[in-house]
Amino acid sequence: MNIMLFHSTYGLRPAVHAAADRLRGAGHEVWTPDLYDGRTFDTAEEGMAFKEEIGKEELLKRAVLAAAPYSERGLVYAGFSLGAATAQTLALGDSKARGLLLLHGTSDIAPSASADELPVQLHVAEPDPFETDDWLSAWYLRMRQAGADVEVYRYTGAGHLYTDPELPDYDEEAAEATWRVALGFLDSL
């Protein structure tokens, strides 16, 4: 599978490279665009402030430009938190998208086009302050109404970015379970 993997609000940190290496080790081709031009952050607040400086439109433009050279191959879009929101936006706008793997986040952009049978897998903490139960229910219904084939996996007790071993949210058991399920999902595409 060809996978476009987007980083979180923290930037292109070692955890993203480690995830890409894990995916490559499973036989996938993976690209990890740096939407922050080399900047990384120690806190989510710093990363969000920088995201606001860049602006939503510029961030999306950078993501589109990063994915464009590979989209003809039929990409699986994937991402962490903010990167998951970016991945969702791109996948729903790409008729050749092969799948969508969301780790720790979703987008508030409602599908405007049909996402007929687009395989979507979401992995989130439970509870998650950024992905509340009400939000996830509404998101799930919108995606299903657009025709996406959606699976949601919740990890009780894990922190928001529980797959990043450098953050306090890290939960090894939840992270390993996530990768096991996600790799199975990718193999099924």
Q: Can you walk through the features of this model?
A:
The chain has a single domain, classed as 3-Layer(aba) Sandwich (Rossmann fold). Helix content is 40%, strand content 19%. Strand 3, helix 4 and strand 4 form a beta-alpha-beta unit. Helix 3 crosses helix 4. It is globular, with a radius of gyration of 15 Å.
Note the quaternary state here: single chain
Terminal CA distance: 8 Å
**Spatial sequence of strands, sheet with the most strands:** 2-1-3-4-5-6
Shape: globular
Secondary structure tally, helices: 6
Rg, alpha carbons: 15 Å
CATH topology: Rossmann fold
Q: What pattern of helices and strands is seen along the backbone?
A: EHEHHEHEEHEH
CATH superfamily: Alpha/Beta hydrolase fold, catalytic domain
Instruction: Assign a percent range to the helix content.
Output: 40-55%
Nearest-integer average pLDDT: 94
Identify the CATH architecture.
3-Layer(aba) Sandwich
Main CATH class: Alpha Beta
Structural class: alpha/beta
Largest sheet entry? 6 strands, parallel
**Unreliable stretches:** none
% residues in beta strands: 15-25%
Q: Please give the domain count.
A: 1
Based on DSSP secondary structure assignment, what is the total number of beta strands? 6
Q: Gist?
A:
The chain contains six helices and six strands; from the N terminus they run E-H-E-H-H-E-H-E-E-H-E-H. It has one domain: Rossmann fold (3-Layer(aba) Sandwich).
